[in-house]
Design a protein that fits this description.
The structure is a single chain. By secondary structure, the protein is α/β, with parallel strands linked by helices. It is built from 6 helices and 14 strands. The protein has a single domain, classed as Ribonuclease Z/Hydroxyacylglutathione hydrolase-like (Metallo-beta-lactamase, Chain A), CATH 3.60.15.10. The chain has a 7-stranded mixed beta sheet. A 7-stranded mixed beta sheet has the order 7-8-9-10-11-12-13. α2 links the parallel β5 and β6. It is globular and about 50 Å long.
Length: about 280
């Protein structure tokens, strides 16, 4: 796909939810857990540090070999599938690299949670032994800027703290909303829709949790994930142009995901619907 004047593109490095899924039935869409790269001009944003961040690190090391590089790493929340790849991120061991973590404050700070992940009992290298320059930014106000990029965040409906992010750059909008449940509860539904609606309004690309089929969701209410149909309905209401389904269930094979996408398209939502695939690059 040719690069356009927006100089903004997204690349998928990990698209799976919950746990990595190796094997022949998970090749088309990929089996690594959540990691999405967004380039806005020369600025590199990364959303979540699941196992997909390992190959992203190798690609960045090759691209910036021996040169200074700065990345901005947004952690939606610290469930395992969203942080388990960071200890294997090549840039963490690169003295020329600067890594800025962005996240919220729940029961503890993001810094303490990442520090705990890399204690000796869990990993042989501690956070303080990494060669890169690491900084932690605790999000406390909306919006905030990184260079010429404007970023908004909001809390999503998911057990524990989970954040969604809206990126505005060069008159384009990208939204990352993994691990979110679109609620049908009449007492919470209006708030839920307003909250997610403010985040996704007029987005060019919405990368959203669509883990379940409607039948699966009926037995998993309150688990913090959504079906494609429910997300597509909300996305249509708020003028999203392209919905990319994400956080694929570890039990869903390539065939299952393809079937779910075809079914959602058959319902004639007025938006484009595709499934996230590892390695895909989309220019905005």
């Amino acid at each position: 796909m040719k690069k356009n004047k927006s100089n903004m593109y997204v690349r998928f490095w990990g698209v799976r939810g919950s746990i990595p899924t190796p094997g022949k039935d998970f090749v088309k869409y990929g089996g690594n857990t959540s990691c999405v790269e967004l380039r806005c001009g020369q600025t590199i944003l990364i959303f979540d540090a699941g196992t997909g961040i390992r190959m992203l690190g190798k690609a960045l090391s090759k691209e910036f070999s021996g040169k200074p590089v700065t990345v901005h790493l947004f952690i939606s929340h610290t469930h395992w599938d969203h942080i388990q790849g960071f200890p294997f991120f090549d840039l963490a061991y690169n003295k020329h690299a600067s890594i800025y973590f962005y996240g919220g404050h729940s029961v503890s700070t993001l810094e303490k949670l990442i520090l705990g992940q890399m204690e000796r009992e869990y990993f042989p290298v501690t956070l303080f032994e990494l060669s890169s320059n690491i900084h932690f930014v605790e999000l406390s106000h909306n919006p905030f800027t990184i260079n010429d990029i404007t970023i908004w965040y909001t809390h999503l409906f998911h057990p524990g703290l989970s954040l969604g992010f809206r990126v505005e750059y060069n008159n384009h909008v990208f939204v990352y909303a993994s691990d979110n449940e679109v609620l049908n509860d009449p007492e919470l539904g209006d708030y839920n829709l307003k909250n997610i609606g403010n985040l996704i309004q007029d987005a060019d690309i919405l990368v959203a949790d669509c883990q379940y089929t409607p039948q699966e969701y009926a037995t998993r209410i309150g688990w913090g994930h959504s079906s494609i149909e429910s997300v597509a309905g909300v996305a249509s209401r708020f003028n999203v142009k392209h919905l990319i389904t994400f956080h694929h269930d570890p039990n869903h094979t390539d065939r299952d995901i393809t079937r779910a996408i075809k079914k959602a398209r058959s319902l004639s939502f007025p938006i484009r619907i595709t499934a996230a695939k590892e390695g895909d690059i989309l220019y905005i």
